[in-house]
Design goal:
Blueprint (H helix, E strand, L loop, with lengths): L1 E4 L5 H12 L4 E4 L8 E4 L9 E4 L2 E4 L5 E4 L14 H21 L3 E3 L2 H8 L1 H10 L7 E4 L5 H7 L4 E4 L8 E3 L6 H6 L5 E5 L3 E9 L2 E8 L12 E5 L3 H13 L4 E9 L4 E7 L5 H7 L3 H11 L2
Length: about 300
């Protein structure tokens, strides 16, 4: 049995589900929005072999779960219970603890694990781990102190970008002109992530354990996802960069990943981030790299 965390409205989950169906592999979607009503869990922390999970009345023994494709985790439902904030909070926490405790305990082949996702959500920590392991990353400042930006500008010769600390919005290049008072004041409400601007080209690496597929992205915007005419071409990476990709995956507990790198004008490969549930369909279509096949191979054979 293979579990897909997500739903079939997502094209990646759907693609994986269809392939598994063609290969006559048993699979089931686990959509956490239906937990607890239609997702029942029953497990023993001292012996996960005995437990089960029931998804819309389909009973899946935990010991039969071969692997898990974690694509979209919809979180845990928060419900207001009888106008009682305390009870609502407790209910939410108990639901979450029961399910995530299972995710941590269940020893199966996770692509990727809850630990990997939790590290990814703390992007600053992921960068910290990378740097500690001698991976080249952009000089980075996380702050809600507007008075520190001026100095950071200077250190980086006036070339910096800003992006969210956790993700979810485009990267933007900053100049003295765009760094307005309102912008700086907004730091009072939400901290932001500032980085040295890496002038160069984007590289996206799809890594499935030791299998590496790299593409170069030629784009006219800072964040290539804003550029509908961005061009993707296959490239080969130097062995040192491939080894760094393996290292990054190891540090961030990733068994497969979409790794964002920028190659700067001095020929340095600067690691931006490593995603635990990357999109790959568009890159596969353009490059013909066997990305779906590689993922399916991991899910079925763990190889
Ligand atoms: N320091 C930088 N210098 C130049 N370009 C950058 C820098 N940081 C990010 N970018 C560009 O912006 C893109 C998006 O940034 P990043 O990968 O850090 O976050 P994200 O993909 O938005 O995060 P998420 O997908 O988790 O929301 C990068 O792929 C790169 O093209
Ligand atoms: Mg990215």
């Amino acid at each position: 049995m293979i579990i897909i965390i997500g739903d079939n409205k997502d094209i990646h989950s759907n693609r994986v589900a269809n392939k598994l169906k063609n290969l006559k592999e048993d699979f089931c979607f686990l959509d956490t929005r239906f937990y607890p009503e239609n997702v029942l869990i029953n497990w023993y922390p001292d012996n996960t072999e005995l437990g089960y999970i029931k998804i819309k009345n389909k009973k899946i023994l935990l010991k039969d779960i071969k692997s898990i494709y974690w694509r979209n985790y919809f979180g845990i439902k928060y419900e207001q219970i009888e106008n009682n904030n305390y009870m609502s909070e407790i209910t939410y926490k108990e639901r979450k603890s029961a399910l995530t405790g299972l995710f941590y305990s269940l020893k199966t082949n996770w692509f990727n694990s809850i630990e990997a996702f939790e590290i990814h959500q703390k992007k600053a920590y992921a960068l910290h781990l990378m740097k500690k392991n001698n991976i080249r990353i952009p000089r980075t400042l996380i702050t809600n102190d507007k008075n520190s930006i001026e100095d950071f500008f200077e250190i980086n010769n006036g070339e910096i970008i800003v992006k969210p600390v956790q993700g979810g919005a485009y990267t933007e290049k900053l100049s003295k002109k765009t760094l307005t008072k309102e912008r700086l004041n907004s730091l009072k409400q939400i901290p932001a992530q500032f980085q040295e601007y890496i002038d160069g080209i984007d590289i996206r690496v799809y890594a499935f354990k030791k299998d590496i597929f790299a593409v170069k992205i030629n784009s006219n915007t800072i964040d290539f996802r804003e550029d509908k005419s961005a061009e993707l071409t296959k490239i080969e990476l130097p062995q040192k960069v491939i080894n760094d990709c393996y290292k990054v995956m190891d540090i961030l507990k990733l068994k497969y990943s979409g790794i964002d790198i920028r190659l700067n004008k001095r020929g340095e490969y600067v690691f931006i981030e490593a995603n635990p549930a990357p999109m790959f369909i568009y890159a596969e279509k353009v490059t013909k790299y066997p990305l779906t096949e590689s993922l399916i191979n991991l899910l079925i054979n763990n190889a």
